[in-house]
User: Fold this.
Amino acid sequence: MKIILTGGSTGGHFYPLIAVAEEIRRLAKKEHILEPELFFLSNTAFDEGILYDNRIAYKYVPAGKLRMYFSLRIIPDAIATFFGILKAIITVYKIYPDVIFSKGGFASFPTLFAAKILKIPVIIHDSDTSPGRVSKWSAKFAERIAVSWPEAQQHFDNKEKVAWTGNPIRDEIKLTANEGAYEFLGLTKEIPTLLIIGGSQGAQFINDQVMSMLPELLQKYQVIHQTGKDNFSSVEGESKVVLEGVAAELTMRYKPYGYLNNLAMKMSAGASDLVITRAGSSLFEIALWGIPSIIIPISISHGDHQRKNAYSYARTGAAIVVEENNVTPNILLNEVDRILNSKKTSLDMRTAALNFSKPQAAETIATEILEIALTHEK
Assistant:
């Protein structure tokens, strides 16, 4: 059995593919199915270490963005897509998989085009409330369509093929690590803890807000701050200036990190009472952890996805949204106080987050992939 995974060149596409790959292997072993051969086709390997650890072979397929606006990149992107389609047809034909699973994005287009030409069964998954162009196009010939948000179902004509599965999340970050979390992070259980995640995009805006209110925050709270790798040195330096003259016992409450690896993120989630975040794929992890959140969506994102995702999640009662143009240190501080000073508010938001989460998303999708692959294999 051979299965191809494909998707865009961001973590929001890549890591759900890995979560599904993990479940494919687990289910194959459980059902005594011969271990499948897995391949990842994209314009970048994204994380070669994770691909190697999961025994997924990477095949380079060039791709260019499918732009709907004028840009000097239109011609080179079109050339990359053309050669990507040729490369994908040859690569897919040589592998001749039993099924292709796509997370969408421009990097998946050549592989999906090849699947259509070669009549390979396709399953797609889209992570946004309003699906992208590649997802809408590939949905016309896909065997199954999975979505992360319930309202995304209305964007597809073939409703019988669509299922709200939630977003696949890797096993290693599904559960929070409560035991030893405070010791690991150098925190105390007696003081509420705030986790601030800048995200892969737009981290600088959140970093600036944190610096503006850091002394006031530390009067009441402990702060775990993921700054983004590229921003860590500048944030660390600025925080020393901002906290100059602040009592040492308060400065010890601030824990900046350029990047939180899986263990550190699980520990941070286990110790945190509230999260400030962007509206990317981290929302699904936060929901699974059952932590209240304040969402600051990126004001300009492709298809306005961040804003739409943020308000969709907030409607569940698990979060509140503060848009960038409304953000001030005082507003953020007031919202943090309002949530953490009310046990009822915090509990209601935690309950809503857990009710929204779908921890079996990866297993549900992997089951469908294997079923179609077995049928095609025969």
Notes: The first helix runs from residue 11 to 30. The radius of gyration is 22 Å. The chain is about 45% helix and 15% strand.
